[in-house]
Amino acid sequence: MSIDRLEFDFNPINRSPGDIQEYAKDGAYVCGLTLEGAKWNAEKNCLCEPDVMELFVKMPVIHFKPIQKRSRALQNNYEAPVYYYPIRSGTVDRDSYIMKIDLKSGEQPASFWIKRGTALLLSTAN
């Protein structure tokens, strides 16, 4: 299949990185992402309200699995932007935006998480 007909399916896995001993059959396991502006509900596998004064939350391991492009958009989904670091605008020398990751939006619509500024970060330091 040609690369222009592929996209990723993002599946959070409720296992610690140390517990994963095998390679992904398709795609890759990615760990170390931090969620800003929300919390991850491991039981329901979706976004939820963070605790009071909880600014950053570690995301579980995410399986990036290549799939054929969908004909329809996912329902109850938030396209979370992924940034290298918290300064989202980047600088003249380097951009901050990387890609988007589809996460289940839970009880709130995607517009709620957009207004909240929910995003994934590779680093919480500038």
Description:
The chain is about 5% helix and about 40% strand. With about 130 residues, it is mostly beta strands. It has a single domain, classed as Hypothetical upf0131 protein ytfp. A five-stranded mixed β-sheet has the order 6-3-10-8-9, with helices on one face.
Secondary structure: elements and pairs:
Blueprint: E1 6-13, E2 28-30, E3 34-36, E4 39-41, E5 46-48, E6 56-58, E7 61-68, E8 77-83, E9 97-104, H1 110-116, E10 119-121
Parallel strand pairs: 8-10
Antiparallel strand pairs: 1-7, 2-7, 3-6, 3-10, 4-5, 8-9
List its salient traits.
single chain, 126 residues, mainly beta, Hypothetical upf0131 protein ytfp, 5-stranded mixed β-sheet, 3-stranded antiparallel β-sheet, 1 helix, globular
Specify the structural class.
mainly beta
- Mean pLDDT equals 91
How much of the sequence lies in strands comes to 35-45%
Outline type: globular
Number of helices: 1
CATH architecture: Roll
Distance between the termini: 39 Å
Helix/strand order, N-terminal first: EEEEEEEEEHE
Q: Walk across the major sheet and give the strand order.
A: 6-3-10-8-9
Largest sheet: 5 strands, mixed
The CATH topology = Hypothetical upf0131 protein ytfp
Q: Got a strand count?
A: 10
**Proportion of residues in helical segments:** under 10%
CATH class: Alpha Beta
Low-confidence stretches: none
Radius of gyration: 15 Å
Summarize the structure.
With 126 residues, this protein is mainly beta.
